[in-house]
Fold:
Amino acid sequence: MQPIYTIDAFIEKITKEDKNYDLDKIVFAYETAARLHKNQKRDSGEPYITHPLAVAYIALSLGMDTDTICAALLHDTVEDTEYTLDELSKDFGADVAMLVDGVTKLGKIPMATKEEQQAENIRKIILATSQDIRVILIKLCDRLHNMRTLHYRTDVKRRATALETMNIYAPLAHRLGIRPIKEELEDLAFQFLDPYAYEEIEKQMKLRKDQREEIIESIKKKIADRLSKDFDPVPYIDGRVKSNYGIYKKVYRDGKDLDQIYDRYAVRVIVNTVTECYGVLGIIHDMFKPIPNRFKDYISTPKSNMYQSLHTTVIGKEGIVFEVQIRTWEMHKTAEFGIAAHWKYKEGISGKTKNDERLNWIRKIIEAQKESDDVEEIVRTIKTDLAPEDIFAYTPKGDMISLPLGATVIDFAYAIHTQVGHRMTGAKVDNKMVSIDHQIKTGEIVEIITSKDENHGPSRSWLKICKTNEARSKIRSWYKKERREENIFEGRNELRRELRRNMIHLDDEELKELLEQDIKRHNCETLDDFFAAIGYGGVTLSKIIPRLKQNYNKKYAEDRKDTQIQIDKQLKTSSGTSSGIIVDGINDCAVKFAKCCTPLPGDDVIGFITKGHGISVHKRDCQKYRLQKDDPELSGRWVDVLWAEERSTTYFSATLDIVAHDRIGLMADIVNTISTLRIQMHEATGRELKNGNANVIVTVSIAGKEQLEGLMQKIRKIDSVMSVDRSNKQ
Ligand code: MN
Structure:
């Protein structure tokens, strides 16, 4: 079924192209590859050289240049034979060597089945190929041929490769706008991932094949007849049925009936100018009844992969629903070849295409990489950006804005203009006020309400709400620029809070010493710079705390031991003989309290059997419990636990009188300190004193004098606290 690839046929195909290919170089590349792979075979039993030759064929069909075709022919030589990169460079030049090296490196990125890892791999692919986009194009050709021959491989291998293709390579092809490769990759992968569904759709489609072709032909003819009145010659009209995977997505994922899939039949009209596009649209809407809300103007608002066309769905006289796509020839080239159109239709463009919008996406990701060290976040962004589904909403003026699925009004605002985003105070969707985390759906009209104040800025919390990389990096850079003092303050507080949670007490000098490496790594000069970076989100705390803790433990191990003993003592006293927790009738069981939700006596709690560390006690409304309780692998490890009842009787109430310089977060810090020690608090009130200080009164349940003194000592260490006393007024 697969075409048989021979070098003679290949040469013939090249000579037919009206481009200046260096045939000698290509033949030499073929001969070199054939010689090097001489004794190797594919899993199909064919000589290995059939594979690079097939890859070169696909590259040629994309219109790739001489060097790319040579690299396609040689792409497996360095990896699989004795041939070295140096030799290759001597034989074929630095460019071909760089391309082969890039493809080889890509091949070494390990296969992953976990979603997160896959996205991480995409990030690596993007970084590896940011030098020259031709690398990824060769890799796509390579993957396409491997997918075409996948049935020769083992079952396990098949599934993994198909999954990776579906999750990484097809979306990449989509991103780069190469529709035929994207669709073929998807269809091939789908065939291996869900063979039964694939077969079913194939069967269904075959069943009505004649009928379908008849329908398409008659629609095409009708349109051609009508267009012939206004156009001479008649525009090119093409009809097709949606790809199998496209149908599968609608049937299985969106739960649609095969007959309900509107765009199952699609007719494409290709004209010469944009004006003609809209002209044809008018005629189509005149001939057939358009379905409301199904018209999409991708000409005025191209998709993020530069795709342009008018789409409309209409109903014919017989009640048959079909989609019409209208575009110019120029747009058609982009739709079919995407980024490869540079090579196919424009000559002399090197791999370092600087001005392609599609590469902006890659560039943005690399920029984001520089801005933030939070790999997970970058990976999350890539995943959203890669999701092929775009939504589109409108401004009140009718301009269409396209955004990734799940985008919020914040993303919408920033997509209009940076300043609109910065000045946003609220948003209306279809004339109703919505909350800032409203997720936009296709077709909604979104009005952004902005402040007149030029200095109005975004809220920090938006960073967690917005979906697009664009919005996030704009918000971040606003904070970076506009709010240094605030960033330092916020950053310092955030870090201090986190340190206290970990029972680490350090002054700025000590902190600077322990953080030295991190400060350097983030190109900060002073500790304040570093605080500022934390403040605007350029440095993520969760990434630096573990190392900081390690350094701290190394340096202050002795002190730490003391604290630990003290805490252990406190835990002991607070519960008489055990932790104060009863586990399903067992009395003596190692129990610790989860850091994520810090349960206190009286809270509704649940226990989790950890591997080797006894039972970890969570609040019942802890996120972790809610997320994991239905996980089949973990659900069995959750057990019922109770607070030991007698414990409350051994407690007495104590009131502390605290005086401190008033500052933001003071109360929170005091409460945190108390709960970290697992001490139950009944009451906390604060008031401002005339001299600008604050007086906080807290009442706690305490097991004994020793515990109370421990608590007072801890509170005294909180920033800005001046005095802590036991109060007599109860
Ligand atoms: Mn290969």
Q: What stands out?
A: The longest strand covers residues 652-661. Residues 358-481 form a domain with the Ubiquitin-like (UB roll) fold (CATH 3.10.20.30). Confidence is low (pLDDT under 50) at residues 348-354, 563-578. Residues 51, 75-76, 142 surround manganese (II) ion (CB under 6 Å).
